[in-house]
Write a structure and sequence with these properties.
Largest sheet: 5 strands, antiparallel
Radius of gyration: 12 Å
Number of helices: 2
Low-confidence stretches: 82-96
Helix content: 10-25%
Distance between the termini: 12 Å
Strand order of the largest sheet: 3-2-1-4-5
Strand content: 25-35%
Shape: globular
Structural class: alpha+beta
């Protein structure tokens, strides 16, 4: 388990995510300043496009502290607003 997942497990409760992605991303960004905060949209077969926030590592990997709020319908995709960001159009990792 990496340091980001450990932080998520220690700080983000299973019922603390719905509609709270911006707040958790801001808080996790403060704990890990090398992560980039990204605003975008989550595309879901159940809900359609929904605003979402996540972080990316310097090498472009997605870190999503609130991925648990997203329904498990697949494929799950996120797109950065404005495009061109390293985290744009990447598959959302499944979080417990």
């Amino acid at each position: 388990m990496n340091k980001y997942q450990c932080w998520i497990d220690d700080n983000v409760g299973p019922h603390d995510t719905l509609g709270m992605c911006a707040a958790w991303v801001r808080r996790m960004g403060e704990a890990f300043p090398k992560l980039t905060q990204v605003r975008g949209h989550y595309l879901c077969h159940t809900w359609g496009p929904r605003e979402h926030w996540w972080l990316t590592t310097p090498d472009g990997k997605i870190v999503d502290p609130t991925a648990g709020q997203i329904p498990l319908s697949w494929p799950r995709r996120i797109r950065a607003t404005g495009g061109g960001h390293p985290g744009a159009n990447r598959q959302v990792p499944r979080v417990r």
